[in-house]
Design goal:
single chain, Amino acid/polyamine transporter I, 77% helix, mainly alpha
Length: 440
C-alpha cells in the first residue's frame, strides 16, 4: 500500500444523489450540532437491529447480567471506530470503500468487497428474519409468508430514497424513538436489580472459560460493531455541505463525533435494555432457555404482568427491522461503487441483496421449521464478527497514516487504542475458530 492517495478525492455518490445539506456557518454550538445530527443515528440503527435482539436475548436469559460487559465494551469499540470512519470521510473526501479501492491492488480490493458483501447479506438476513418474526407475532402471518413479504421493503425504501436524505434521517430517528419508548416502558416493568446490572458491566473470567458464553459474546460483538457501518458512516457524513478548509473540517469532525457518540449511546441503552430485560424477566425466574424471540414475546405479558409488554416488544422489533433495512441499502450502494466502481440501479442492487438474504432464511425455515430461526439470527451475527477485522484494520491503517490524513492523523494514543481494539476483535474471532475446530 502506498503512503499517498493515488488520485484526488472522488465525487461523493450520496451527495450526488441527495445533494449536500447546508450547515450553520457561525459559531453557535446548538445550531451546528443540529445541522450535523443525523448520520450518527443512521449508523446507530445497525447497532440495534434484530440480530442484536437474538444475541442479547440469548445472553440475558442464559447468563443473566454477565454479558452486559460485552455490550458495554463493544459500544466503546464502536464509538472509537465510528469516529475514525467519519474522520476519514471528512478529512479526505473518501469513504472507506473508496479509500480501499485506491490504496490496494485490484485483487485485494475485490476480496475485501466480497467480504463486505457477505457482511451486508448476513446483516440483511437478520433484518428479513426479524421483520418476518414481528409480522408473525403481531398479525399471525406465517414466518415463510413474512419472509416473502419483506421483498416489499425494496420498493418502500426506494420511495423514501427519492424524498431526500433529511427525510431518510427523520424516518430513522422517528423509528428509533419508538424503539426507545417501548424498551423504556418494559424496563420499568421488569424492575431489574441495579446492583447486578452494575456488576454485569465488569468483565467476568467465565466469558472466556465457557465456550457457550464466548460464542454468544462474539455474536454480541458482531451485532454491535458492524463492518458495513464503517463504510456507511465514512460516506454519509459527507452529505453535510461544510467548506473544505482545515478549520471547517475540524468543526465537521467535532460535531459529527458528538452526533455519533450520542447516537451510539442510545444504541447501548437499547442493547443493554434487551439483555437486562431477558435477565430480569427470564434468567432470574428460572427460564434460562428463552433465547428465541417468539418465546420471549409469549412470556413477557405473564412474567411482567402487563397486557402491553408483548405487543410493544413486537412493535419495537418491526421498527428495528425496517430501520436497519434502510441503512443496509445505502451501505450496499457505497461498497459496490467504492471498491469496484460498479454502479447498479438502486432497485436492482437492493433486490439482489434482499434475495440473497431471503433464500437461506426461506429454505432453512421451510426444511427445518420455525425453530431454527433464532439460531440463524445468532449465527448471522457471528458471521458479521468474522468479517469485522477486514474493515477495521484498513480503517485504522489509513487514519494512522500522516501522508494520507495530514493534520487529522490519529494521535499516538488513539493509534495505540485503535490497534488494541483491532487485536481484541481479531484475537476473539481466532479463538472462536479454534474452539469450533476443537483446537482450543
Amino acid at each position: 500500500m502506498s503512503n499517498a492517495w493515488r488520485s484526488e478525492g472522488k465525487t461523493r455518490s450520496l451527495s450526488e444523489v441527495y445533494g449536500s445539506i447546508p450547515i450553520h456557518s457561525g459559531p453557535g454550538f446548538w445550531k451546528n450540532l443540529r445541522a450535523f445530527i443525523g448520520p450518527g443515528f443512521m449508523v446507530a440503527v445497525g447497532y440495534m437491529d434484530p440480530g442484536n435482539w437474538a444475541t442479547d436475548l440469548a445472553g440475558g436469559s442464559q447468563f443473566g447480567y454477565t454479558l452486559l460487559s460485552v455490550i458495554f465494551i463493544s459500544s466503546l469499540f464502536a464509538i472509537v471506530l465510528q469516529h475514525l470512519a467519519l474522520k476519514l470521510g471528512v478529512s479526505t473526501g473518501r469513504d472507506l470503500a473508496q479509500a480501499c479501492g485506491e490504496a490496494f491492488s485490484k485483487p485485494v480490493a475485490i476480496f475485501l468487497w466480497i467480504l463486505c458483501e457477505l457482511a451486508i447479506v448476513a446483516c440483511d438476513l437478520a433484518e428479513v428474519i426479524g421483520s418476518a418474526l414481528a409480522l408473525n407475532l403481531l398479525f399471525d402471518i406465517p414466518i415463510l409468508y413474512g419472509i416473502l413479504i419483506t421483498i416489499l421493503d425494496v420498493f418502500l425504501i426506494l420511495y423514501f430514497q427519492h424524498r431526500g436524505f433529511r427525510v431518510l434521517e427523520s424516518i430513522v430517528m422517528s423509528l428509533l424513538a419508538v424503539i426507545s419508548l417501548c424498551f423504556g416502558y418494559e424496563l420499568l416493568l421488569s424492575q431489574p436489580d441495579i446492583g447486578s446490572v452494575v456488576k454485569g458491566l465488569v468483565p467476568q473470567a467465565s466469558i472466556f472459560q465457557d465456550s457457550s458464553q464466548l460464542y454468544v459474546a462474539i455474536g454480541i460483538l458482531g451485532a454491535t460493531v458492524m463492518p458495513h457501518n464503517l463504510y456507511l458512516h465514512s460516506s454519509i457524513v459527507q452529505t453535510r455541505a461544510y467548506a473544505h478548509t482545515e478549520a471547517d473540517k475540524t468543526k465537521a469532525v467535532k460535531f459529527a463525533t458528538i452526533d455519533s457518540t450520542l447516537s451510539l449511546g442510545l444504541a447501548f441503552f437499547i442493547n443493554a435494555g434487551i439483555l437486562i430485560l431477558a435477565a430480569s424477566a427470564f434468567h432470574i425466574n428460572g427460564m434460562p432457555h428463552v433465547a428465541d424471540i417468539r418465546d420471549a414475546y409469549q412470556l413477557l405479558d405473564p412474567v411482567l404482568g402487563s397486557k402491553w409488554a408483548s405487543a410493544l416488544f413486537a412493535i419495537a422489533l418491526l421498527a428495528s427491522g425496517q430501520n436497519a433495512t434502510l441503512t443496509g441499502t445505502l451501505a450496499g450502494q457505497i461498497v459496490m461503487e467504492g471498491f469496484i466502481d460498479l454502479k447498479l440501479a438502486p432497485w436492482l442492487r437492493r433486490l439482489i441483496t434482499r434475495m440473497l438474504a431471503i433464500l437461506p432464511a426461506f429454505f432453512i425455515t421451510w426444511i427445518w421449521g420455525d425453530s431454527k430461526v433464532g439460531e440463524l439470527l445468532v449465527f448471522s451475527q457471528v458471521i458479521l464478527s468474522m468479517q469485522l477485522s477486514f474493515a477495521v484494520i484498513p480503517l485504522v491503517w489509513f487514519t494512522s497514516d500522516k501522508a494520507k490524513m495530514g493534520k487529522f492523523v490519529n494521535p499516538v494514543w488513539l493509534t495505540t487504542l485503535s490497534w488494541l481494539i483491532s487485536a481484541v476483535i481479531l484475537g476473539l474471532n481466532a479463538y472462536l475458530l479454534l474452539q469450533i475446530f476443537g483446537l482450543a
